[in-house]
Amino acid sequence: MFAALAVNWVFLVLRASIAMMFGTIAVVWPGLTSVGLVLLFGAYVLSDGVLALCVALSVKGLPGFGSLLFESLVRIAIAIVVFESPAFAALTLVDVVAAWAVLSGLAALAVAVALRRDLSNEWPLPLAGAVSLVAGVMLVVGPGAPPDLQWVIGPYAILFGGTLLALGLRLRQLAFEIAS
Questions:
Q1: Band of the pLDDT at 100, cuts 50, 70, 90?
Q2: Taking residues 167-176, what's their average pLDDT?
């Protein structure tokens, strides 16, 4: 699985870039409405889910494939829910983001466990999973929708993207070592 992921490092870098762009837009867009945030979030999770699906399909049949497939399908399903009913998603955005974060975190941790034999000292993916879980749990047990949810979602997406970027660049380096 490691070799297949290393060869496809560019997908992780793209996912990281999209996450960081989404997070930055969510934070710096003045007057972003809840429906606007929902549609922006839907576009982010759809593009991220499609890229995650490309990565999953590249490791089909290898250990960890199920976790990667699960992660991609969760993201695509959340996007479908958001685009199917943006008004409903806007009303339940905290719950939608919390579900996405928890499920994504669990999937990232499962992939990290599958990779631990092949990749020593691997910290970005477990960190991304842990950050996702903590953010999701905080949203679930928190006092409700923060007045500016974009200040929760934006920094979380930037941090999540940063950890994926670190992993993607590490896999890039290892892909060059494998090719040598």
A1: confident
A2: 86
Q: Is 94 exposed, middle or buried (0-12, 13-18, 19+ CB in 10 A)?
A: middle
Hey, what amino acid is at 159? L
Residue 24 to residue 92: CA distance in whole angstroms? 22
> What ranges do the domains of the chain cover?
2-179
Helix axes 9-28, 34-58, angle to 10 degrees: 170
Q: Which pTM value belongs to this model?
A: 0.82
* Residue corresponding to tokens 């719950």: 95
Please state, in angstroms and rounded to a whole number, the distance separating the CA atoms of residues 168 and 118.
15
Kindly compute the dihedral angle of the four CA atoms of residues 80, 85, 130, 144, in this order, to the nearest 10 degrees. Answer: -170
88 pLDDT exceeds 80? yes
What angle is formed at CA 139 by the lines to CA 136 and CA 143, rounded to 5 degrees? 160
Question: What's the whole-number mean pLDDT along residues 95-121?
Answer: 79
